[in-house]
Amino acid sequence: MAETVALIDYGAGNLHSVENALRTVGAAVQVTADPDAVRAADRIVLPGVGSFRACARGLTAIPGLVDAMDERVRGGGVPFLGVCVGMQLLADRGLEHGVTRGLGWIGGEVRAIERTDPAIKVPHMGWNDVAPTAHAGTVLEEGEAYYLHSYHFAADDPQTIAAMTDHGGGIVAAVARDNLLGVQFHPEKSQAYGLALLTRFLEWRP
User: Fold this and answer.
1) Boundaries of each Glutamine amidotransferase domain copy (predicted)?
2) What is the pLDDT of residues 102-112, one digit of tens each?
3) Annotated catalytic residue: which of 84, 96, 124, 149?
């Protein structure tokens, strides 16, 4: 029997494109906001588009959902993938539209991208590199992916930075620890590179 991937549905915007990409690589996807379904899942994916504050509020507004995610991911050790704002929500807090508490699963905060050069555009939008660090693990590989964001993950511990990209300076492209992986870019918009990453996520045994 195929493993089930719980794709968290909390009104985050890019749900269907992530679902389609996961199904393309053969995942048995269950789109859900049901805490019991999350507790039964073999893998969990948290998408996200929009502001940190709106996504955090959407997630915490669903009774029991964050607790179920915490039990399954941090308690049960199932593989977890956060995408874009879904990755940013792993942080302790976000600074978009004021301070908003995140999940606190990977230490750090989400700050605005600083434009130090007038030629650098914000939001960071389009194709850019993914340069894995020594802490990347087995899911990330070097390549190019599609980005769309104005805020970035400033990690407290450099060992949780799994990949970097360059947009007027270094920006965290991915964070990881144990069974947690978060990517700032959009695998579902990254064509062959993104589909290959999702395939490796389905095979990941952290």
Assistant:
1) 7-191
2) 999 999 999 99
3) 84
Q: Where are the domains of the chain?
A: 4-203
**What is the Cα–Cα distance from 129 to 166, expressed in whole angstroms?**
7
Instruction: Tell how far CA 199 is from the center of its chain.
Output: 15
pLDDT by residue (tens digit) across 74-89?
999 999 999 999 999 9
Is 186 annotated as catalytic? yes
Among the listed residues 124, 152, 167, 186, the single catalytic one is 186
Contact 167, 128 (CB under 8 A): yes
Distance CA 179, CA 36 (A): 20
Q: Is it true that domain 4-203 has CATH number 3.40.50.880? A: yes
What number of other Cβ atoms are within 10 A of residue 145's Cβ? 23
